[in-house]
Amino acid sequence: MRATESGLPTYQDAAAVPGANLPSLELEFHAYSANPDQRFVFLNKTTLHEGDSLPQGVHVDAITPDGVILSYHGTRFVLRQ
Predict the structure, then answer these.
(1) In the 8-state DSSP scheme, what is residue 12?
(2) Rounded to an integer, what distance in angstroms lies between the CA atom of residue 75 and that of residue 58?
């Protein structure tokens, strides 16, 4: 498993771990700003900000300049556009 600059695995690597059962995710749009209130992503056709979650339980931990750090049932990973 390759680690990203943040030290976290990519979504693809995390999803490949046996038993991870990560839901299918598609990052359609990613908007990063120095102002945290202006950061958002369009993930699985849903607009999310830092701290929001998808109905499937995927949580947006942080939106970074090059992607989004997500968590799901204790597994943290990076999803890039």
Answers:
(1) H
(2) 10
Does residue 74 lie within any of the structural domains?
Answer: yes
Q: pLDDT tens digits, the chain, 81 residues: what are they?
A: 454 566 899 999 999 999 889 999 999 999 999 999 999 999 999 999 999 999 999 999 999 999 999 999 999 999 998
Count of domains forming the chain: 1
Q: Does residue 38 belong to any structural domain of this protein?
A: yes
How far is the C-alpha of 7 from the C-alpha of 25, rounded, in Å? 20
Residue 55, domain CATH: 2.30.30
- Residue whose token pair is 């049932």: 73
| Residue 6 maps to a domain | no
* Phi, psi at 9, each rounded to 5°: -70, 160
- Side chain identity at residue 25, one-letter code: L
